[in-house]
Design a protein that fits this description.
By secondary structure, the chain is an alpha/beta fold. The protein contains 12 helices and 8 strands. The protein folds into 2 domains: 208 residues, Alpha-Beta Complex (Spore Coat Polysaccharide Biosynthesis Protein SpsA, Chain A); 98 residues, no CATH class.
Length: 320
């Protein structure tokens, strides 16, 4: 007997992407008697509510709430879900094949109930003009997946990305779900709670792959995200003090030497290092324009390190 799968999709002001997602979901080959799609509109003002309300497909349910963030929206979806399994999917994810949903469902039917399925997150098939920082993220994820496949790295709670991940509803509820107080890294924090407090196992499910059509953002948002990860990674590490491997301070001691030096400079001279943000952004854009993709990505790597440490330092200072 098939386990019932509830797919939960939070969405905020992405009408065009939401319209595509609905079509992609409807093209899936999964048995609809054992699945449902729940789209949670997080207070959108771009016509998403009207679009969702006019859907006539009973397999797709729409819920509406005031804008409270993705973590809260996912929780709203869980509260309404009737499935044994939960699949969290972002609204900018395109299934790579018609059996994407079924791949998540079948994985759980054949494995331990407390195993979390980490679906593959792939770069978009097109849109080669996307900014270099998107390619920086994509390279990091690709390297992680190569580590999984080669055995150099084991999937863990650190790799819990809510863009494409599934688990039993019972396990999710036991964990307490997403912490709505986190503005960033709320999925990583949940993944670690699942691992350390509920003995969850994690598996990379490559066949449950989806293309990530991340909306082309601005470099400012990229810097803000790095900064917030610095702050919230320290919060997470303090929640699990017995796990030294989670300490963000390792950035000052782990090779390569160039990264260690950059991190220490960002910590000791933060105001000076902030001055490098704009020149590095210009260098990344120019490098990408000239076809120097590796240099552009390297600029983004430096930018991320600087702003991550700035966030880490501010959180460290705030906590004293």
């Amino acid at each position: 007997m098939s386990l019932f799968l509830s797919v939960i999709v939070p969405s905020y002001n992405r009408l065009a992407q939401l319209q595509k997602l609905v079509l992609w979901m409807q093209a899936q080959g999964i048995d609809r008697k054992h699945s449902e799609i729940i789209i949670v509109n997080d207070g959108s003002s771009d016509g998403s509510k009207e679009f969702l309300d006019q859907l006539t497909d009973p397999w797709i349910r729409a819920l509406h709430q005031e804008n409270q963030g993705q973590a809260k929206a996912r929780g709203t979806g869980v509260d309404s879900a009737i499935g044994d399994l939960l699949l969290f999917l972002d609204d900018d994810m395109e299934p790579s094949n018609p059996n994407f949903l079924e791949a998540h469902q079948k994985f759980h039917q054949l494995t331990n109930v407390d195993t979390v399925a980490l679906g593959a997150i792939l770069p978009p098939r097109e849109n080669s003009s996307r900014p270099a920082f998107e390619k920086f993220y994509e390279r990091s994820i690709a390297n992680m997946y190569e580590g999984f496949k080669s055995g150099r790295q084991q999937p863990s709670g650190l790799h819990f990305f809510s863009a494409n991940v599934s688990l039993s509803k019972n396990l999710y509820l036991k964990s307490g779900g997403f912490d709505i107080n986190f503005r960033q890294a709320e999925d990583r924090e949940l993944g670690l709670r699942l691992e350390f407090e509920h003995d969850a196992q994690f598996a990379f499910v490559e066949r449950a792959a989806a293309y990530h059509h991340s909306p082309t953002g601005r470099y400012r948002a990229f810097l803000d995200r790095a900064y917030l990860y610095g702050r919230y990674d320290l919060k997470i590490a303090k929640s699990f003090p017995e796990h030294d491997e989670l300490s963000p301070y390792q950035i000052f001691a782990n090779p390569p030497l160039s990264k260690m030096v950059l991190a220490k400079c960002s910590w000791t001279t933060p105001n000076f290092m902030r001055l490098w943000n704009q020149p590095l952004i210009h260098m990344a854009k120019i490098s990408q324009f000239l076809g120097l993709s590796k240099l552009a990505i390297q600029c983004c790597s430096v930018l991320y390190c600087i702003n991550y440490v700035l966030g880490l330092k501010d959180e460290h200072t705030y906590d004293i």
